[in-house]
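SEQUENCE-TO-STRUCTURE ENTRY
===========================
What this section holds: a protein sequence and its matching fold, both as plain text.
Question of interest: how does this chain fold, as expressed in backbone structure tokens?
***
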Amino acid sequence: MEIEKKFQLKALPDLSGYQKKEIEQGYLCTDPVVRIRKSDDQYILTYKSKVGIEPSGIVAQVNQEMEVPLHEKAYQHLREKVDNHLIRKSRYVIPLADGHTGELDVFHGVLEGLAFIEVEFESEEAASAFCPPEWFGDNVSMDKRYTNSFLSKCEDLTVFPKETK
């Protein structure tokens, strides 16, 4: 089960010392979510379905998630079939002082200028107790504009007020 919170950023931290992945992903379907992703040299097909509980408002989503590895040739074949745009982003894996890990996404292409961070939790209680670092901005966990499936449909960043990027 996936329990997560997403945050805007007050400012980008110095990212030079963190692990970085280059990601490309697209959606074959958004309800349920069927996604393909290339992360560096790994290729993955993901299926996400909503779990039979309502999120508490503390977390963005509670999903059942299944991942299946793909070969590059299968990824390329499915890549031609995605709806809308492929999302391109750099993901930085950032250890946080409280022991959690943040995944900071910096978007490219039509989403250039957008960045946010996501933290996954082992329980809703842990998500509720989370105290974000000072450099985190507003909690946007319940804002659908920060879902990758929504972002894959964006032509530009006009859906975001200037202060949220």
Summary: The first helix runs from residue 72 to 79. The chain is about 10% helix and 45% strand. Residues 120 and 132 are 12 Å apart (CA to CA).
